[in-house]
Amino acid sequence: MTKLQIVLILACISFMYLAFRAFKRNKISLITFCFFFLGWGTIAVFSLKIQWLNAIGITFWLNRWAELIVYFSIIILFYIVFHLLNIISKNWYDLTRLISTNAINKAYDEVKDQLSHRENSKELDDFIFNIRVYNEAKVLWKTIDEIVAYWVRKMVFINDGSRDNSLDILEEKKKQYPKCLIVIISHTINRGWGAANKTGYNFIKKYAKALNIKRVVWFDPDWQMDIKDMERFQKAIQNNKDVDLFLWSRFIKGAISYDMPTSRRIILRLSKIITRLFYGVKVSDPHNGYRVYTLPALEKININADGMHYANEINEQIAINKLKFVEVPVDIRYTDYSLWKGQKNSNSWKLGWEMIYQKFFS
């Protein structure tokens, strides 16, 4: 068996599986599925029996040029695959937009009376935290307590369809800290990292005046980030008045990453190179989750991805909008929980695929 045959067979199996998944989710019709399945099945058969294809070619005076049929078919079927993926993505994003809009409107109705009676009394009242929550019950309570202990009084939590008791914890903490503005936005269905963060910043952009804020902090609830690093961010803000956003970095002077796995360090180093090549942004830590934005900067950033590719989109938006940024050293706590929950190395492969697909085929 030649290398070409192996590649063709693997491609056939992969795309037949994608067609089956799309059909199960009612994203394609039975006729489309049959056409798709039979097309790739035919290529798989001819890949195993090249002599059959040659025999057909001789019948039509093509001789060994019959292989051209295979290549032409592959091109057509690849087009069909990505056309279907684009249709599925559009439907997915439309559903996200509907869920997000309903969640934002409901959340505002619940807090609008509270907003009308709030006044800023401390510097940190100019900041609001945007925090995506998905099944974080084990550490969520501890994260909120630390944030409040640091005198942060404004938080937006996006409960992204959690199936544990994360929502109950958020409601309990809202009662426990009545002097804090804790906005809870709930997605009825889990939509992904990007979708949740997008919902949060759309809420903040829409009601920024009522929230009476100047900056937005993106923060994770998995107890990996240290709220005390806000001191470094505040100092950087004081020293850089004209900067649009401030990004964490685990790889500049002053940063500490407790127990960072070697494999994680290698992947992050590679992502830095890829980010420079694909997006032209020279950041030392491309997939940073601890960010501080000015409102004008937030207005310019447009996120489309529902998944983890949103981090790449932000880097791309930084380049497109020529936003000024400063990197801030942070202390990151790598725990078994955070590595399992959101920092798995396997996510890097998924993120790489999303980046290539969004960059060239969407």
Describe this entry's structure for a reader.
There is one protein chain. This protein is of the alpha/beta class and 362 residues long. The protein folds into two domains: 89 residues; 243 residues, Spore Coat Polysaccharide Biosynthesis Protein SpsA, Chain A (Alpha-Beta Complex), CATH 3.90.550. It has 14 helices and nine strands. The strands form two sheets. It has a seven-stranded mixed sheet, sandwiched between helices. α2 crosses α4 and α4 packs across α7. The protein starts with a helix and ends with a helix.
The CATH architecture of the largest domain can be given as Alpha-Beta Complex
Q: On the 0-100 scale, what is the average pLDDT? A: 82
Tell the overall outline.
Answer: elongated
Fraction of residues in helix: 55-70%
Report the oligomer: single chain
The span between the termini is: 34 Å
Strands ordered across the widest β-sheet: 3-2-1-4-7-5-8
Strand content: 5-15%
SSE inventory with pairings:
Layout: H1 3-24, H2 30-48, H3 50-59, H4 67-115, E1 127-133, H5 137-149, E2 154-160, H6 166-176, E3 181-187, H7 193-206, H8 208-211, E4 215-219, H9 230-239, E5 245-249, E6 256-258, H10 262-279, E7 291-294, H11 295-300, H12 310-320, E8 325-329, E9 331-333, H13 336-341, H14 346-360
Parallel strand pairs: 1-2, 1-4, 2-3, 5-8, 6-9
Antiparallel strand pairs: 4-7, 5-7
